[in-house]
Amino acid sequence: MLEHLGEAQGALTRLHLGPFTPFLVTHPEHLRRILRTNAANYPRGAAMWKALSRLVGDGIGGEGAQWHASREVLRGAFSGAYLAQMGPQMAGSIDAAVADLGARGGAGRPLDASVEMTRVVQRVIDPVFFGRLIPDGEGDRLGAAVGTAMGSLLWRMAMPFVPHSVPLPGDRAFRKATRTVNEILRPVVTAARNAPRDGGDVVTRLSNGTGPDGAPLTDDQVCDDIVALFVAGSESSAIGLTWIWVALAQHPDVARRVRAEVDAVLDGARPAREHVRRLTYTQQVLREVMRVYSVGWAVPRTALEDDVIDGVPIPAGSTLAISPYLTHRIEEFWPDPLRFDPARFDRAEVQSRHPLAYVPFGDGVHQCLGEAFFQQEATLVVAAMLSRYDVAVAGRVTPKLSLTLQPQEPVQLVVTPRH
Ligand code: HEM
Question: InterPro entries, per this entry (predicted)?
Answer without folding.
Answer: Cyt_P450 (IPR001128), Cyt_P450_CS (IPR017972), Cyt_P450_E_grp-I (IPR002401), Cyt_P450_sf (IPR036396), Cytochrome_P450_monoxygenase (IPR050121)
